[in-house]
Amino acid sequence: MGWVTCAFPDCAGVARRPRGRCLAHLDPGELDEVVRALRPGSAVDLRGTVVGGPLLERILTATGRRPGRARFDRAVFDAPAVFNDVVFLGDATFDRSVFHHLASFLGARFAGNASFREARFVRELSLHRAAVGGHAAFDRMTVGSDALLSSAGFRGTASFESADLQGFTTFDDTRFGGDAAFRGCRFGRAVSFRRTDFTGRAGFEAVRFAAAAYLTPAATRRRLALTDARAGARLVLSAEGCAVDLRRISVAGPLTVRLRNAHASVEGASLRGPATLTGRGSSRVTSLSGVDAASLHLDGVDLSACRLADVRRPEGLRLTGCTFARTPHGVQFAWRWPPLRWWAPRRALADEHAWRGWAHAGDGPPPTPHRLAVLYSRLRTAVDDRATAADFHFAALEMRRITSGPARRWLLGLAWALTGYGLRMGRAVVWSAVVTALVAAGLLASSASHAAHRAPVPAVRPSR
């Protein structure tokens, strides 16, 4: 245990010197003597002790509900543990403690660190409006019923790694002053992070959401990570002004992601339900590589640097109001034939930029022209803008021209030069004007030459 245990049989409570027994097994007179010695700020040591309701209330009352260093490691609370409005002036530890009934820390204040590592709450846990001035640790704790942590304040870092929260859980209006770690946490029922303020990093790596989850914080100033997270039902997520990591996330139900001036990576995600990702401001998606989604709607996001060739089901994409890359402007010089190239202005995928060498190819090899042709053909029906759809159709024909045989390449090249595959009618007008001018010039030249070589007609003299 790490301490001298109580002499009472099968009791792991810390022994009080010189009696050799814990507070729960002291005689009434001996307990009165210990309680009379307590003052506000006095240290409280109930490690391993079975703490009943009357004993806890006497200790808290004797310290004026302002204990100093509080040690409740491995304590067993066999009655409701009510710490409402208690101010812990020193560090408070409840590691491996067991709460068989309600554990309420409503409005409690922890001036130092608070630790509940591997604590087990059989019933409800309430930290509503509680405040922790130092580090807060809830790693591997278990809550059998509802966990209410709304309107709480964690000034330092807060860790809930591998916690098992089996009931309804709420962190609404809670403020995290440092990093918040929920790695490997399990939520058995609905969980809500509405209007939560994350000053540091919010890490939900490998989290398991068995029911609906609402991660709609008021602000996440550094990073919001849900790498390898699993959601069995609806997942609603919003972020503003930060990086969002959704790599390898798996969602069985509907997914709603709202971004504002944020950038997200959805690489390797598995989305079995309808998914919607909406962006506002300068929001962008950096990667969709390996995404498996039957229905994914991207609205108002920047896809200029996002490669789409590795999306497993591109026919399930729907793109509205998205921004794409652009072809280079003006005339360019190249060391291969033709040396001078002029690119018609159009929207293009980042995959084509990678293949042509206009942008960094990234981790994987760029797609082949044949793959690009298929991708452009599929995505032209996924966009809502006619101009973008026409540009994608133009790009698909460009890729087919590159991969075709000599005869078809010649025909497609002629179609490109004359009419831009029927999509650049300005070229047809220019060619018509050129042909008309050449025909007119030829006619004029022919008429002048014919007049110059015509035989002169002799003059007829009048008869006398």
Rg, rounded, reads 37 Å
Mean pLDDT: 86
What does the overall shape look like? Answer: rod-shaped
Number of H- or I-type helical stretches: 7
Category from helices, strands and their pairing: alpha/beta
Low-confidence stretches: none
Q: State the end-to-end distance.
A: 155 Å
Could you give the count of β-strands?
Answer: 47
The amount of helix comes to: 10-25%
Number of domain modules: 3
Strand % is 25-35%
The order of strands across the largest sheet is 1-3-7-11-15-19-23-27-31-34-37-40
Largest sheet: 12 strands, parallel
Provide key terms for this protein.
464 residues, alpha/beta, twelve-stranded parallel sheet, rod-shaped
What does this structure look like?
This protein has 464 residues and is α/β, with parallel strands linked by helices. The chain folds into three domains: 68 residues, no CATH class; 258 residues; 89 residues, no CATH class. The protein is 21% helix and 26% strand. It has seven helices and 47 strands. The strands form six sheets. Strands 1-3-7-11-15-19-23-27-31-34-37-40 form a twelve-stranded parallel β-sheet, with no helix packed on it. A twelve-stranded parallel β-sheet has the order 2-4-8-12-16-20-24-28-32-35-38-41. A hairpin with a 6-residue loop joins β45 and β46. The model has no long low-confidence stretch (mean pLDDT 86).
